Amino acid sequence: MSESTATSETADAAASRRLAPWVALGVAVVMIGLIVLLINASSSDDATTSDSPLLGRPAPEAIGVLDDGSSFDLAQRKGSWVVINFFTADCIPCQQEHPELVEFVEQQDGLGADGAEFYSVVVNDSPEDVEEFFDEYGGDWPIVYPADSSAIDVAFGVAAVPETWIIDPNGVVRVRVISTVDSEVLNVTMQQLREGAA
Description:
The structure is a single chain. The radius of gyration is 26 Å and the shape is globular. A hairpin with a 5-residue loop joins strand 7 and strand 8. Mean pLDDT is 82; it is low at 33-47. Helix 2 packs across helix 5 (183-197). Helices cover 46% and strands 18% of the residues. Strands 1-8-7-4-5-6-2-3 form an 8-stranded mixed sheet, covered by helices on one side. The protein is of the alpha+beta class and 198 residues long. The protein has 2 domains: 1-44; 48-197, 3-Layer(aba) Sandwich (Glutaredoxin), CATH 3.40.30.10. The longest helix has 42 residues, at 3-44.
C-alpha cells in the first residue's frame, strides 16, 4: 500500500469519526421529532367517537342522586340536549380534560335555552374525593352519583373513564366520545347535531 493511500485512508477514518457524532445527533433529532408528532397525533385523536350498540337508540336507564341531594333521572331530561361525562377524581385524563369541560359548559350556558345540559357521572368514587376534585379544578354543574341499584356506567357500557355521551331531546343516544374531549370539538359536534335535528 502506498504512503498516499494510507494517508488518505487515515484522513477518511478521522473524518468519519468527526462526522459520526453529528450523524447520531441528526438521527436523534429526527427520532424526537417523530415521537413528538406521534404524541400530538394521539392527543388530537383522543376525542374520538366510538361505535356502540346504543347509538341511535333510546338512552339506557340512568337514575342517581345529584350532589345537592335531589334525584336524577335521565329519562326526565327529554326535551333538552344532554351531555354526560363519566369520570373518577383520581383519573389523570379526567383531570387533564376538565378545563375543556369547564369551557364547554360556559359556552353552552351562554346559549341559554338552546345550550346543552351537562352532568358529570361519578364512577366508583366517594363524595369527598369528588368535592375535592371540583374544589381544585373548578366547574359548576350537577354531579350525578349512581343510585344503589343503578350502575350508570355499566348501562352505558363505559369501558374506562373519561367517556362523554350526547343524548338528543328525544332521549336518543347520538354520540359517544372515548377518552379526553376538547371543548371546541364538543361545541362543533353539538352545533352539527342541532342543525341536523332542525
